[in-house]
Design a protein that fits this description.
Layout: E1 2-9, E2 14-15, E3 20-26, E4 33-40, E5 61-68, H1 69-75, E6 88-95, E7 101-108, E8 113-115
Parallel strand pairs: 1-7
Antiparallel strand pairs: 1-2, 3-4, 3-5, 5-6, 7-8
Length: 119
């Protein structure tokens, strides 16, 4: 089923269109990260190319999504302090069963965020 993400801007009550996101594979042994792809979220707050990994490409292992939160809110006209409370939000997660779908949603404001394993 693959890997996907979706970002909702809880300050404005809308998808986080235009937010930059980077996907990395990570090493559980030494913590190193390798960039897989960068994207800018579409009007629905999703990757414009669809899945981040399709079923055939997704591998068991550890991953990191990095969301450029402060830059997104600045573009939306939010007056953030310097430095901002949240700059980039990094989510590290594991994929144990590649036959399942892994959806990683982010609900975010300039001051808080939450995530969960979605469907």
């Amino acid at each position: 089923m693959g890997l996907s993400t979706h970002v909702l801007d809880t300050m404005h009550g809308s998808p986080a269109a235009g937010m930059a996101v980077a996907l990395f594979t990570t090493s559980a042994q030494d913590g190193s990260a390798t960039l897989v792809k960068r994207m800018v979220l579409n009007s629905d707050g999703r990757n414009p190319d669809g899945l981040l990994y399709d079923t055939q490409s997704l591998q068991k292992g550890t991953y990191r999504l990095v969301f450029d939160v402060a830059a997104y809110f600045r573009v939306r006209g939010v007056d953030l302090p310097a430095p901002p409370f949240l700059n980039q939000v990094s989510l590290d997660f594991g994929v144990a069963d590649v036959s399942q779908h892994y959806h990683v949603p982010l609900l975010v404001s300039p001051w808080s965020y939450s995530t969960y394993r979605g469907s």
